[in-house]
Specification:
Two copies of one chain form a homodimer. Chain A is built from twelve helices and seven strands. Chain A is of the alpha/beta class. A seven-stranded mixed beta sheet of chain A has the order 3-4-2-5-1-6-7, sandwiched between helices. In chain A, helix 1 crosses helix 12 and helix 5 packs parallel to helix 6. The radius of gyration of chain A is 17 Å and the shape is globular. At the A-B interface, helix 2, helix 4, helix 7, helix 9 and helix 10 of A face helix 2, helix 5, helix 10 and helix 11 of B. The structure holds adenosine-5'-triphosphate (2 copies) and magnesium ion (2 copies).
């Protein structure tokens, strides 16, 4: 029975997509059947796997709206055991359409995740930088949340809003939802700022913070331009080793 | 008559807030009366000026909904000639409330910007990482758009969606809207990636790209943790000099 994990944080550019693409790749490489769902209309996780955005390719939007069956929009990737449900540009309009629908918070769960959960060991959801209806759908469809936190000052500001939203979803829509873990990203050893942010995050989240810290590493930013996860682009880079270790921690926690 | 400029890009973490805070500071320091409007419920531009987020302080939400007059929510900052209209957490709920209202795309323009435009020379709007109704309100209320583009691969992907949205707003809601300029941010001289992205952006936007390129500079990331724009935190840093030069270019273009 697939464990569904959403990677969420409404602060932009903190490493949500980079975490989904690279953790999913390492977990699939360990033999676990893995699915990535791209809930962000920018489609960055598709291109992280080298799948070009085609404006008219059906994707998550069509499944959410019941136009296509979920089986029809699942795509393979070049990584064994790893499939992806791509987003497309229509997803950005879905927010407004969903607002008027009944059970609007459950669309992703009922139309997509519940229908495929048994075929995968892990399902990772990449979310957009917002706490709107799409991200709410992702939280309702998930068993747990991984929160990436960039080691910079602005990234601390939105955390209380994110935790409030997680709690509201937990109390009203998905009682089983829990925080899987908090991962510190883009840690820069040259500055004091990263260390200060790390200390604040550990003081607040305590054991929930993964021991693995993801360093700022330019190879991680270069890999998507070659359409490859870091494991295929530069497996011996600091970025790759840190995402490998993070994947092991996630698997260990079960 | 105030020139209203929105800084927008739905890609997260590309330097929207950093650009608003620092350009507004340099322009105010030249003697121009300047207003910053924080349209992002995370409130990062407030904290960039050292204004702590208070959950219950009235802000932009109350003015948009007609609960408070705009004059009642304008705050001074420690920079001469610079005022700010703060956001607050209620702003994230405003999207859903606005959807049901008449002239929902004009709320920011009619309730806020048109009422204060004559008192400022420049008005800068910091927008959230999305193309939802709040950003649309920002585009409708503005004379022009500054697009910050991070010099990394994923940042290129959303550009066509952003330009489409700007064109739709221009044709249907705000015919005067134009692109003020495109600014390359977080340029890292150590990698090829930045150079490749720069070349693609210049090939596409041509003369609209500012000559000033903002380098990746840790001082820019440190300044907000002291609640200060870069001009006050470290005026001789590369980050400060580049934002000073950018402000001069913006002023020159008139
Ligand atoms: N550890 C890292 N070191 C260096 N660059 C990184 C790292 N992690 C991510 N990046 C780069 O930083 C940028 C932001 O990361 P990413 O796009 O994964 O964040 P995101 O949270 O998904 O953004 P958005 O909020 O727009 O969805 C990307 O260009 C990515 O390649
Ligand atoms: N040129 C730069 N060099 C180094 N760090 C930078 C630079 N510009 C911005 N930063 C830092 O990068 C992070 C992202 O920048 P910022 O928050 O301004 O982007 P944004 O587009 O406003 O993000 P969001 O999409 O969440 O609103 C912040 O922590 C900021 O301090
Ligand atoms: Mg992303
Ligand atoms: Mg911002």
């Amino acid at each position: 029975m697939g464990k569904t994990i959403i990677v969420a944080n409404q602060k932009g550019g903190v490493g949500k997509t980079t975490t989904v693409v690279n953790v999913a790749t390492y977990i699939a490489s360990e033999g676990y059947k893995t699915l990535v769902i791209d809930l962000d209309s920018q489609g960055n996780s598709c291109s992280g796997f080298g799948i070009e955005r085609e404006e008219n390719r059906e994707g998550l939007y069509e499944a959410l709206m019941g136009i296509k069956k979920v089986e029809e929009i699942i795509n393979p990737t070049e990584i064994k055991n790893l499939h992806i449900i791509p987003s497309n540009i229509h997803l950005s309009g879905a927010q407004v359409e969903l607002v008027e629908m009944k059970r609007r918070e459950y669309k992703l769960k009922e139309e997509v995740v519940d229908r495929v959960k048994n075929e995968y060991d892990y399902i990772f959801i990449d979310s957009p930088p917002s706490l709107g209806l799409l991200t709410i759908n992702g939280l309702v469809a998930s068993d747990s949340v991984i929160i990436p936190i960039q080691c910079e000052y602005y990234a601390l500001e939105g955390l209380s809003q994110l935790l409030k939203t997680i709690n509201i979803v937990k109390h009203r829509l998905n009682p089983a939802l829990k925080i899987e873990g908090v991962v510190l990203t883009m840690y820069d050893t040259r500055t004091n700022l990263s260390k200060q942010v790390m200390e604040e995050v550990i003081a607040y989240f305590k054991k929930k913070v993964y021991k693995t810290i993801i360093p700022r590493n330019v190879k991680l930013a270069e890999a998507p331009s070659f359409g490859k996860p870091i494991k295929l682009y530069d497996p011996n880079s600091l970025g790759a080793i840190s995402y490998y270790k993070l994947s092991q921690e996630i698997l260990k926690n079960g």
